[in-house]
């Protein structure tokens, strides 16, 4: 179908990647976001090979390689500093045909924004309602402004307005059971080797460092806590020092070195897999359609896959927009549900939902030569649209 006009709600990774893919397909694209400035949530993201392949397809291979971290190895340590396993990622790269790139979210967002063009992104535009008929679909904004097109994409994140319209009810977010702190620190040898993703595990908690561009580590800490705990940014360091008391020296060094005011603290949620991802001329994409815990590192990658599949569905059917979106839904529903449920299962294992299972995992890591972990990551990557 040619000459379509597409309205995208949300200028995050998913919305921008979709905008680029659809513009390259020859469509007219407008992106709207409620924020006054684009500041991504979270400090970093592990962009696994399936997400990188989409960026390669969009012509951004060189750009992502220049801002991504050179992650050559994965190492697990116990909380007291005992090395459990340490292995090369090159067998993974051979299996899937592309290296992963952990990346700062700000760098990734800027790269996508530069590729799409800021002049076609309207900020301060909060979508409050959606209307559609047989011939068009309209987004209505809080200030009374309207945007009408042939297709409307809800890429408006985990608290999506478009999702509520599409489902006819508000879907509850589900607390996964842990709090995550994350941020960026300069790479340094007393923290971890500069080409390794290093994870300390114990007491159902995790402390992790991953190389991203600009000679920085993206770090995160996970602690299982009841829902609703709060702390002030000024207290981040003391809070983490308490939770990780007695942990290995590099973890203590990281806590001392992080900037408490630039460290995010997030209660991790997901949503149950949805019954539908499309309705008429409206489709959901990224976290709006399948908000997942970060435990498989697939949240951003699934948004990238959505972008590519959606563009292909619109390009390859000439029946109708509705038909193209039905095909998109069919292609994405099961895949994204598997990622949500897989991440949830892994989170439970990592964070002591069943303490015995978590202990078994710690023990298994001592015998791990990398092949099981690589097989699991590879399976997730290769289940996507780009093999």
Automatic annotation (TrEMBL):
<keyword id="KW-0520">NAD</keyword>
<feature type="domain" description="FAD-binding">
    <location>
        <begin position="4"/>
        <end position="340"/>
    </location>
</feature>
<keyword id="KW-0285">Flavoprotein</keyword>
<dbReference type="GO" id="GO:0004846">
    <property type="term" value="F:urate oxidase activity"/>
</dbReference>
<comment type="similarity">
    <text>Belongs to the FAD-dependent urate hydroxylase family.</text>
</comment>
<dbReference type="GO" id="GO:0006144">
    <property type="term" value="P:purine nucleobase metabolic process"/>
</dbReference>
<keyword id="KW-0274">FAD</keyword>
<dbReference type="Pfam" id="PF01494">
    <property type="entry name" value="FAD_binding_3"/>
</dbReference>
<keyword id="KW-0503">Monooxygenase</keyword>
<keyword id="KW-0659">Purine metabolism</keyword>
<dbReference type="GO" id="GO:0102099">
    <property type="term" value="F:FAD-dependent urate hydroxylase activity"/>
</dbReference>
<protein>
    <recommendedName>
        <fullName>FAD-dependent urate hydroxylase</fullName>
        <ecNumber>1.14.13.113</ecNumber>
    </recommendedName>
</protein>
<keyword id="KW-0560">Oxidoreductase</keyword>
<comment type="pathway">
    <text>Purine metabolism; urate degradation.</text>
</comment>
<dbReference type="InterPro" id="IPR002938">
    <property type="entry name" value="FAD-bd"/>
</dbReference>
<dbReference type="InterPro" id="IPR047712">
    <property type="entry name" value="HpxO"/>
</dbReference>
<dbReference type="InterPro" id="IPR050493">
    <property type="entry name" value="FAD-dep_Monooxygenase_BioMet"/>
</dbReference>
<dbReference type="GO" id="GO:0019628">
    <property type="term" value="P:urate catabolic process"/>
</dbReference>
<dbReference type="InterPro" id="IPR036188">
    <property type="entry name" value="FAD/NAD-bd_sf"/>
</dbReference>
<dbReference type="GO" id="GO:0071949">
    <property type="term" value="F:FAD binding"/>
</dbReference>
